[in-house]
Specification:
The structure holds 2 protein chains of 2 kinds. In chain A, 38% of the residues lie in helices and 33% in strands. By secondary structure, chain A is α/β, with parallel strands linked by helices. Chain B has a single domain, classed as Heat Shock Protein 90 (2-Layer Sandwich). Classes of the chains: A alpha/beta, B alpha+beta.
Chain lengths: 113, 145
Amino acid sequence: MDLSLSTETVGDRTIVKVGGEIDVYTAPKLREQLVELVNDGSFHLVVDMEGVDFLDSTGLGVLVGGLKRVRAHEGSLRLVCNQERILKIFRITGLTKVFPIHTSVEEAVAATD
Amino acid sequence: MATVELRFSALPEHVRTARLVAAAVARRAGVDEAVLDEVRLAVGEACTRAVGLHQSGGITAPVKVLLIEEEKQFSIEVGDEAPRSAPGDRAPGGAAEDPDAESEEDEMGLAVISGLVDDVEVTAGEHGGLIRMTWPTTPPTAVLP
């Protein structure tokens, strides 16, 4: 399985819908997408991970990199995830403290700091 | 003791294959279904790390994965051939473009492995490194005569 990516704009938020497996092979595609969005001026990102089947530390690295980029523009990067096996990876690496994680895209879009 | 051995060129696209094979053998060996996700993730992290070490060190040798089925336990060994002059040292040539980022990702991979697997050993020497991870297995239900 490969990685699928699509984007949608809701107000000032850009939703990045990710599907498939994020690993050492596919993570560069996600990195490119996030870099491109930030370069194009989208600084408030919502990464919807409901369609993600697999995530490893390379994927975490890309998300952290994305967060760093949007923060440089006073932006935000929020995640949407309800899958226990994906959430577990954020917990064991302590990244639940770094990323706001929401249960739905609507909740993430409505969220403010 | 039954063993499945897998060798693959140090390319990112083969890491997924290693995950799938490891999960299939682990399931067959009797590793609990609930733990298979962890096996998949841990072996993927170990292989990703090995691929990175081979690529940054310009090593053409394949990455080696051993899937070892033993009585009451299942082990996975992921071996790389990146030499370290002392345990814990980075491979020569590892200081490519962005040594910090690379080493951070490496650390994150190891952090995930140690967070996931209770029984893990990481060794490294002049001939390369090895990550050995072990999980308990459920023996097949005994059939009474």
